[in-house]
Design goal:
By secondary structure, the chain is of the alpha/beta class. It has six helices and nine strands, in the order H-H-E-E-H-E-E-E-H-E-E-E-H-E-H. It has a seven-stranded mixed β-sheet. A two-stranded antiparallel sheet has the order 1-9. The two termini are 41 Å apart. InterPro entries: YfiR/HmsC-like.
Length: 197
């Protein structure tokens, strides 16, 4: 086996044992580096720009949604720890002039299934998500999730929030099982909007 490296030129006086010690030190350094615990991942920092953009995205989705009986005001419930719902909680108005009244509810609150037209989900554990989704089945409730990268179970819309853009995925199964109707234009838009490579 031939090892090619950038050691000293022949005749430089460096012995083979000195070279082996150098390789041993290098190998030890690499092993210590690999064994060190990884640096903790940094969570995105919520800021006013993201909260305002999320509000606009949610209001856009609401404008393409129709309820069996259109309420004079939409009741939006924020459930779980949501990083970007501050502007929604401050109150909003749709372009049509219909107000959106928002409030926080805990994951186990029975009012979620009866007093919410829209449910905006933040961070929830699996044990909290499953019974919550059971409350939404066969009800005219639009569900939007802030933290659901896979978007395969539960929420109808899953916001994907990155440093420079906000886009959404659509869970067509959840849409089909819901009693609200979504304009096909927004469904096509959701399928097309994918993160930049």
């Amino acid at each position: 086996m031939q090892i090619i490296g950038h050691g000293p030129a022949p005749g430089s006086g460096r012995s083979i044992s000195a070279r082996l010690r150098g390789f041993a030190c290098l190998a030890a350094t690499v092993l210590l580096t690999l064994a060190a615990p990884p640096a903790p991942a940094r969570s995105p920092v919520p800021d006013a720009d993201h909260a305002a953009a999320v509000e606009q995205e949610v209001l856009g989705i609401l404008s393409y949604t129709r309820w069996p009986a259109e309420p004079p005001e939409l009741r939006l419930c924020v459930v779980g720890s949501a990083d970007y719902a501050d502007d929604l909680l401050a109150g909003a108005t749709q372009a049509s002039g219909r107000p959106v009244r928002s409030r926080r509810l805990t994951p186990g609150d029975p009012r979620i299934g009866t007093e919410c037209d829209v449910v905006y989900l933040g961070a929830l554990g699996e044990a909290e998500r499953r019974p919550l989704y059971a409350q939404l089945v066969d009800r005219p409730i639009l569900s939007i999730s802030e933290r659901d990268a896979s978007c395969t179970v539960g929420s109808m819309f899953c916001l994907q929030i990155e440093d420079t853009q906000i886009w959404f995925q659509v869970n067509l199964d959840s849409v089909a099982r819901s009693r609200v109707r979504i304009n096909p234009k927004v469904l096509q838009l959701g399928r097309r909007r994918t993160p930049a490579p």
